[in-house]
Amino acid sequence: MAGGAASGGSSQSDTYAGARVWLLLPAWATLLILVVAPVGIMLVYSFLTKEFRGGVIWEFSWEAYDQFFFNRGLFGDEPPRIEWTYILIFWRSIWQAGVATLLSLAIGFPTACFIATRAPRQRPIWVFLVTIPYWVNLLIRTVSMKFLLRDNGPLNEALLGIGVISEPLHIVNTNLAVQLGLFYSYLPFMVLPIYAAVERYNFSLSEAAADLYAPRWTVLRRILLPAVKPGIVAGCILVFVPSLGSFLAPDLLGGARNFMIGSLIEEQFKGNAGNWPFGAAASMILLTLVLIILLFSARQQGRQEAR
Amino acid sequence: MTSIVKRALTTTAAAAVLSLGAGAVAAEGDLVIYHWFEYIPQELLDKFSEEYDVNVVMDTYDSNESLLAALKAGGMGTYDVAVPGDYMVEIMTNEGMLDVIADGELKNKGNISEEWADPSFDPGRKHSIPYQWGSTSFAVSRDVYDGDINTTAILFDPPEELSGQINMLDTQGEVLTMAALHMGIPQCTTDRDQLKALNQMVQAAKPHWASFNSDTAKEVLVSGDVAVGQIWDGFAARARAEGANIEYAFPKEGYVVWMDNVVLLKDAPNRENALLFMDFLLEPENIAAVTNYARYVAGVDGVEDFLDPELKTQPEANPPADAGPGVFVQACPQEIQEVYDQIWTNLKK
């Protein structure tokens, strides 16, 4: 995002000079229609007055943001205090998404390294195998996950059968189930970018380090990880961001006992609340958070490349 | 290679010709239905489609509120008919979303049972016809608990063996109305002490609940994931038919009664076919097929001959003599609804 501006075409020939504006048109149109317009509508709606039972009245209002940050009691007539409810919901979502990202990294990184170290002809097969489950609809996969994890499901039956546990593990309707669900939903988004980075890595560098008596851990930490870091960062962002707004796994696997960002926003549009400006405001706050994370990581990356 | 391409091309061309042909004979037009999930047998839609030569398309929703939201967010003019519950018919009428069915436009209107011909939510049936009615209460697994279940305390202050094994419906109206019945306070109360007490009561009850889910309300009882589930009567009957050893409760404090209604939407693109469909659903034989499938009760006279015999004795549809009153959910005015929204957010934060 932020890095793109610097690389402009100063050294390019003048072949396309006249046509350049027009050649960029599809890209600009896509950005305008798919990014600027929807976000713009959301931004405008978040500053409008809510209409009872959904919809907006075209009058400017801060109320949605006020509701997010200030608590005025059950009847809305007490002096304002800081509202922790929504901050708590955001924190819970960030936590769940963070754990899911770490789980994906812990499994995804070795998987990617495994694939990248196979013979070149085998690699596409492994990549293909990683993507196969994702040809099935996410809803179906999430429901199947619930079948696997439930108290009398195959996982518990197997563990009971081999005597590892004496009571079934209670996983469904817990945070762990949500984290596992998110992890499973977005794992390939971690594996594929890391694989792309590791595949380009020259393993003779590791061998050279080992020849110079670097222990394995040092080779991993000082040689391999820095070289594939862009892939890891990309993978983490690709898992973290959709996890943050997801509501399928929290609803189905977590039992929907607590709002996540996604279900909180959904409730404003589909539930009784019918408070569209508040839903839009919560979305804008989420978007701002995500943009801060992305800008931060882009700057980090840029700094590293400049070094 | 070329022969494969050629063959592919000829098949495609043939398919195109076939579908063109099909298009030419099919359909006096379309009918676009917006309906609850799992609520109408496919055979009945096929029957209508064949009888009137109409191409039927159906989308589904999972709550009255999401129906309203989808229509408000640009769904008007897409659908011909929808199936809102009682209080939602009133809300949609006030929002100006429903078209008026003029006198004489429905030839089967006289089939509507007398008790449903002039309901409070649509006086004179200007916009709607009855679809099915039933109740919302809860079902309890008899494998887990054999005490008295006909009290709302099973949901809000459960005995120890049921605590942590309860699924609630994930809709504010059904949960908070049941909670009001449990506390014996009126719906949409303006009394602040009662509202505060309601807020505290549901928060104190929450640790007993395993999950909130409407879509899987039946499935979690069949699989045994929970021992108690807030549920609609027909869904409870179907869960029992699928092997769950459950009993549907009629609490002495009262339970929720609802009626779903087929409404004619404003700006319906196929208004004629919508009216045909409504007349079709007022035929006793057809609406009985819905009842046989969904296990609720029709609001049309003359269905008895077409019903499965076991429906007459179905425990979920026959409240015991000492059951509490069945009440409709009320649509609260804005300032009260906002307090309810706050209570719901507090509950789920």
Automatic annotation (TrEMBL), chain A:
PROSITE patterns: ABC_TM1 (PS50928). Gene3D superfamilies: MetI-like. Residues 90-297 form the ABC transmembrane type-1 domain. Its main location: membrane. The chain crosses the membrane at residues 21-48, 94-117, 124-144, 176-198, 276-298. GO terms for cellular component: plasma membrane. It is found in: Cell membrane. Signal peptide: none annotated. GO terms for biological process: transmembrane transport. The keyword Phosphoprotein does not apply. The keyword Iron-sulfur does not apply. It is a multi-pass membrane protein. It comes from the Bacteria. InterPro entries: MetI-like, MetI-like_sf. Keywords: Cell membrane, Membrane, Transmembrane, Transmembrane helix, Transport. Pfam families: BPD_transp_1. Belongs to the binding-protein-dependent transport system permease family. CysTW subfamily. This is ABC transporter permease.
